[in-house]
Amino acid sequence: MGPEGLREAAQRGSQEVAMTAGIIKTSDGRWSPVSRSNRMRSLWLAALFALVIVLLAASVTVGTRNVGWDDVAAAMGGAQNNIDRASVALRIPRTVLALLAGGALGLAGAIMQGVTRNPLADPGILGVNMGASLAVVVGVAWFGMSSLYAYIWVAILGAGCAAIFVYAIGSLGRGGATPLKMALAGAATSVAFASMVIAVVLPRGDIAGGIHSWQIGGVGGATYERILPVLPFLLVGFVISLLSARKLNSLALGDELATGLGESVATARAVASLGAILLCGATTAICGPIGFLGLVVPHLCRLLVGVDHRWLLPFSTLAGACLLLAADVLGRIVARPAEIDVGIVTAMIGAPFFIWIVRRQRVRDL
């Protein structure tokens, strides 16, 4: 196919994707969202914002002890002269962390599914979270790592190495990095890294308890001192990821068509993946590996806003925050006076959803 044919095919492909996303071509030749779809998406966006606010309020007031709004207001003013106000003071940073971590993982999942064009892509399934986890465990067990900044850098490095390794394995053989091969390579890598974590921790009884608790994945025990160092990494990851929306729309057309539209496929994939790796690594460093959230959220958001990443990425961010906040609140109330970590709750939600996706997708379509 010559350059003109390739460009014509790219334009036809872009029109199909645009129609699916609810986009029309204006008189001046530019693509523009259909106004009615825009209004509907705006309504859903407002509903998500409202849900985030409701869940933030529930996260502060609901737990092993339910707290009234007068105590919440007093605690936010600095008062901690009774147990309810002290509880609120502990819940506020926990709520902030759940908001940030949920948004980061939801956005990272949408980015990974867009980069790989794989409906099963997820930081946990592709082994990225477990790569970050293994790097942190090795740093703690073998090098005595204790600084939170070291945790963050090492987790990001481990997440990046895991992503590169999975992509390299999935690219071997005929057909290159197909979605099915990527999913299989990621699952096998995740299991292998999990076994390596056990092998590293097993002879170290002095750190085993803390490592096992961290590996479950949770937001309990959050403090502002733990959250502040991770904010710059999350901020950069959010910015890079959200700015990759148009490039991901081009990648959705396929490599040849994206190239025909003037897109540098390798650069687009690398930049978007960098944003997802920063989000996954930073979140894993402070919360531990939380699985399935990045798988569930983008699929739910596509039902609301379609495949246009300019809408899908912000929606996935808000929906991820909602899901993790809801999972944290649910984990506090179902086992009172004890708690269930969010990593367990999201796994209980995500595992059946993963099975549904696998049954819904034909293997030849993956």
From TrEMBL:
PANTHER family: FE(3+) DICITRATE TRANSPORT SYSTEM PERMEASE PROTEIN FECC-RELATED, FERRIC ENTEROBACTIN TRANSPORT SYSTEM PERMEASE PROTEIN. The chain crosses the membrane at residues 43-62, 92-112, 124-144, 150-170, 182-202, 227-245, 266-291, 311-330, 342-359. GO terms for biological process: siderophore-iron import into cell. Gene3D superfamilies: ABC transporter involved in vitamin B12 uptake, BtuC. This is ABC transporter, permease, Fe3+-siderophore transport system. It is a multi-pass membrane protein. InterPro entries: ABC_BtuC-like (IPR037294), ABC_transptr_permease_BtuC (IPR000522). GO terms for cellular component: plasma membrane. It is found in: Cell membrane. Belongs to the binding-protein-dependent transport system permease family. FecCD subfamily.
